[in-house]
Specification:
Blueprint lengths: L3 H7 L1 H14 L4 E4 L2 E4 L11 E3 L7 H15 L4 E4 L8 H7 L3 E12 H5 L9 E4 H8 L10 H10 L4 E8 L2 E11 L2 E9 L8 H15 L4 E7 L3 H9 L3 E10 L6
Parallel strand pairs: 9-10
Antiparallel strand pairs: 1-2, 2-3, 4-11, 5-10, 5-11, 6-7, 7-8, 8-9
């Protein structure tokens, strides 16, 4: 039988990867509540507006959940939990399931050794690596950023404390594929990977990933990571080509009408 200390040790690397992913995502609009990180940044990115139960709890579980539900109601956001294999307390997922918080959107966190993947990486022809401050306004349409959210989108990039760079592919002056890399110590996270619908299945996504990983190596990164929903078979096939493998997974839980 695995002791609590052994279990914590087994997930230590995953916990640190979670730290990096949240840092890279800009999880700065949040409240720390008895070991849970309550993100409340409005927008489509659920991991930045959800309850992340990372660390040990001291308060009664029912009391904490009532507090969180009221907090998100006041913020005008759905109350959504993001559950990980190392969420605290260990019985939280089962409690939520038994009390009507349905699971949705299973997501995989993948990790790759950049040195091992370098030899089999495809070419990155036609991809421009540019400063993130230039990248943000260029990709706003492709990423479906609402017009009223674009000033904040650009501001977050300008003030982000971690090194980062963007990638774009242009066709006839139009941005048709993009991606972003953010670095912390020797890890590089890939984000905002998207190809315009008419240009899919032409190798542009593969070229963007290859270019971002090459940029990460150039900047001294040894490990890359990314997040992808478990049902995105084309993306999973692409990432496997670069040596990405499962590090851990997470899933969301919400009440009826709030699973979004």
């Amino acid at each position: 039988m695995t002791s609590p200390s052994e279990g914590a040790s087994a997930w230590a690397g995953a916990r640190r990867l979670e730290d990096r992913a949240l840092n890279a995502s800009g999880a700065f609009q949040s409240l720390l509540y008895d070991g849970w990180l309550l993100g409340y940044r409005p927008g489509p990115t659920k991991r930045l507006r959800c309850i992340n139960p990372f660390y040990a709890s001291t308060l009664p579980l029912g009391e904490k959940i009532d507090y969180c539900a009221a907090f998100y109601a006041a913020a005008g956001l759905p109350a959504v939990f993001r559950l990980l294999p190392f969420s605290e307390p260990s019985g939280l997922d089962a409690w939520l399931d038994e009390n009507g918080w349905g699971a949705f959107e299973r997501t995989l966190v993948l990790r790759a050794d950049l040195a091992a993947g370098e030899k089999r990486a495809p070419a990155a022809d036609g991809v421009e690596i540019i400063a993130a401050s230039e990248w943000e306004p260029l990709v706003a349409d492709l990423l479906d950023i609402a017009p009223d959210a674009r000033p904040h989108f650009a501001e977050r990039s300008a003030t982000h404390p971690l090194p980062h760079a963007g990638a774009v592919v242009r066709r006839d002056g139009e941005i048709v594929a993009c991606g972003l890399v953010k670095l912390e110590d020797d890890h590089a996270g890939l984000f905002a990977l998207k190809t315009a619908l008419p240009w899919r299945e032409r190798g542009l996504g593969r070229a963007v990933v290859a270019a971002l990983l090459a940029e990460a190596r150039r900047r001294g990164a040894a490990t890359a990571y990314l997040q992808v929903t478990s049902d995105n078979a084309p993306a999973l096939a692409l990432y496997r080509r670069f040596g990405f493998a499962l590090a851990y997974e997470y899933w969301y839980r919400g009440r009826d009408g709030e699973r979004r």
